[in-house]
Design a protein that fits this description.
Layout: E1 6-8, H1 14-24, H2 29-34, H3 43-57, E2 63-71, E3 78-89, H4 100-119, H5 132-140, E4 151-159, H6 168-183, E5 186-191, H7 196-201, E6 205-209, E7 222-226
Parallel strand pairs: 4-5
Antiparallel strand pairs: 1-2, 2-3, 3-4, 5-7, 6-7
Length: about 230
């Protein structure tokens, strides 16, 4: 079996990435049951939920979308089977050095996304939960302070169910750990339910919980740091 590799994602791959995320997070308690309880009734809306999220953040200067791919045996075409969203957080996180054209493109995309979400709202979602994670941040943000203020944060990791246990998740995590190692800072994440063991094997240790406040009762949410990537 070939050793998986990863690379930076491209804008024209965002739709494929959203399809993958919808499959990977179908059984996730937070983004699935809690935020999108009608996802099985409106599966296309659940895909749209992920597509809008990815595209809204794609051009932010401190956000990096990474993909892991395989070549399909029948067609030889490249297929995305894993994706991750890494975010450089802290006072030393990169600020925008993008060209005016890229900045304009980013703002235009966000405007279009906002308009389309109002015209075609996400029928899979519980609208009262749309900002639940943001509302919960004050309850656990203190974990990212002191020496841990500067961090590479793994905000999202998804691997197609057909490609679990083939190293794709590991290589996507190692990408961010290498970035953190280069800067001599920590890597961090909040784990989905039943994934803590995976992160333990990669050097992450639980230091607290994110399923507090508005997220009390939601499964998962282990706040995990790798202080020496």
């Amino acid at each position: 079996m070939a050793i998986p590799s990863c690379r930076l994602a491209e804008w024209n791959e965002t739709a494929e990435m959203a399809e993958l995320a919808a499959k990977a997070f179908d059984q996730n308690d937070l983004s699935g049951r809690y935020m999108n309880p009608e996802r099985h009734k409106f599966p296309d809306d659940f895909v749209t939920f992920w597509r809008r999220d990815i595209r809204n953040h794609f051009f932010e200067p401190n956000v990096y979308y990474i993909v892991s791919t395989v070549n399909e045996s029948k067609t030889g075409n490249s297929k995305i089977v894993g994706t991750a969203k890494w975010k450089r957080q802290g006072k030393n996180a990169p600020k925008s050095t993008q060209s005016w054209a890229t900045v304009l493109q980013h703002h235009s995309i966000n405007l279009i996304q906002s308009l389309t979400s109002r015209i075609w709202p996400n029928r899979a979602a519980d609208p009262t939960k749309s900002n639940c994670f943001v509302e919960a941040i004050p309850f656990f943000a203190h974990h990212w302070s002191g020496q841990r203020e500067e961090t590479w944060f793994l905000e999202m990791l998804s691997v197609h169910p057909d490609y679990h246990l083939r190293g794709h998740g590991r290589v996507l995590v190692e990408w961010g750990k290498e970035k953190a190692r280069t800067e001599c800072i920590c890597a961090s994440t909040t784990s989905a339910e039943m994934k803590e063991g995976f992160y333990n094997k990669l050097g992450f240790v639980e230091v607290g919980r994110a399923n507090v406040g508005p997220l009390s009762g939601v499964e998962g949410g282990a706040i995990m740091f790798c202080d020496e990537p």
